[in-house]
Amino acid sequence: MIHKGAWAEVSKDRIAHNISLIKEQVGEAVKICGVVKADAYGHGLKGFVRTLIKQRLTDIVAVGKFRELLNLSVKNIGEGTEILLLGVAETDELADALDSGEVIPRYSIFSGYSMEMLRKMDEVAALGKVTLKVHIRIDIWNSGMGMSPEEFRLYEDEIFSFSHLEVCGLYTHLYTAYSDDLEEIRSELECFKGLVDSVKPEYRKRLCVHALNSSLIFRFPEYAFDMVRAGTAMYGLPCGDGGRLQPVMRICARVFDVREVPAGIPLSYISSSEEGKEKRRIARVMLGYWDSPLMLTQKDVRVLINGRLYRPADEVCMDNLCIDVSENEKVCSGDTVILLGEPGVRVQDILERNGIDPVHSEWLCMTAERLEKIYI
Predict the structure, then answer these.
(1) DSSP class of residue 106?
(2) Three-state DSSP class for 352?
(3) 301 φ/ψ sector (left φ>0, alpha ψ -120 to 50, else beta)
(4) Tens-level pLDDT at each residue, the chain (376 residues)
(5) Residue 292, Cβ neighbours under 10 Å: how many?
(6) Which letter does DSSP use for residue 147 in this model?
(7) Residue 331: which residues within 8 A CB-CB, separation 6 or more?
(8) Domains in the chain: ranges and CATH
(9) What beta strand segments (E) does the chain contain?
(10) I want to staple 64 with a disulfide (CB 3.0 to 4.6 A). Which of 7, 37, 319, 335 is the partner?
């Protein structure tokens, strides 16, 4: 019995199931990078990473922000797992973190976006008397993010000769990854492959090469290279998998009060009078938009109680959700309300009801840190 007003259940078995499907797709020899940025897509950063480590499901994890890398320190998740920072580490914050010991070089991998950035990182590492591991980001489009293939080729020898940087990876991220233009995607992957094939053999053997994110793993597994980055796929969100992946998280709450409320009586800060109804039967749960912000601010919110869908009775508050259960006298205090993770309130159901592009499916998993995550 979970004595919680509201919580999120995260299934360890389903995480393992999803990762096994990814391995089947790309082969056992290909490493799996579990992308845990944005609080592990709302599933809880530290708890989710501990689950990956304990079950030995991934070879490495990736975060998006420098602060996330610091939050995954050895004291929080234990030793032995490398953390790849996909975002940028500013020179001053990197220097401070090295000086304070918050960054442990043997477990941390940084992204290099340009030669200027690499040179600054080398200077910081030299001052700290450490060697930093780096993966170079390549952008096929010259968009101002990563290096272009031409820049990489121009500076290839310098890239692999820094005194305090160990360049051990090369990767790309395709902006076309979620499009239906398979010809363009393949063209960009081939361009990246051409760069990889051109790297000098003595440098190539030092590199972990990765290009596929979740949206590409099930469509272009032949470009898996040495590693794939599993974000949405690991969490069981739609990504062209043919429905084989399983949703990892359920967002739940407990009904704490059910009562009949006369028409016109306010239920929240912004109330409607519900003219024409003499009364409503209202179930309340301690779950609000602060716990699941994008889920509970959609135009068509539904919840599941005992296998049946219901709508909110009024505007959702920060801590409070009122549900109109007038048509069912059997709903009572103690019943479980499911906001996400079962038929009727699956991610794909919510996307369709609200006209949200599937590329944004991870939005619906955003949860506040205060919504406790139960790993089952």
Answers:
(1) G
(2) helix
(3) beta
(4) 455 789 999 999 999 999 999 999 999 999 999 999 999 999 999 999 999 999 999 999 999 999 999 988 765 566 668 999 999 999 999 999 999 888 888 889 999 999 999 999 999 999 999 999 999 999 998 777 899 999 999 999 999 999 999 999 999 999 888 888 999 999 999 999 999 999 999 999 999 999 999 999 999 999 999 999 999 999 999 888 888 999 999 999 999 999 988 877 778 776 655 544 678 899 999 998 888 887 888 888 999 999 999 999 888 888 889 999 998 889 999 999 999 999 999 988 888 888 888 887 888 888 888 899 999 9
(5) 26
(6) B
(7) 255, 258, 281, 283, 305, 306, 325
(8) 12-235 (3.20.20.10), 249-375 (2.40.37.10)
(9) 6-10, 31-35, 60-63, 82-85, 108-112, 132-138, 165-172, 208-210, 227-230, 249-262, 279-285, 303-305, 308-310, 321-324, 336-340, 373-375
(10) 37
Token digits of residue 319: 């801590």
How many beta carbons lie within 10 A of that of residue 10, not counting itself? 23
41 neighbors 52 (Cβ within 8 angstroms): no
Q: Contact at 8 Å (CB) between 99 and 128?
A: yes
For 301-349, give the DSSP string. --EEETTEEE-BSS---SS-EEEE-TT-TT--TTPEEEEESSTTSSHHH
Q: Tokens standing for 10? A: 């995260």
Report the candidate in 299, 297, 292 with the shortest Cα–Cα distance to residue 341.
292
Contact 142, 168 (CB under 8 A): no
Q: How far is CA 319 from CA 6, 253, 314, 354, in A?
A: 10, 11, 13, 23
**82: burial class by Cβ within 10 Å (0-12, 13-18, 19+)?**
middle
Tokens of 169: 């990876």
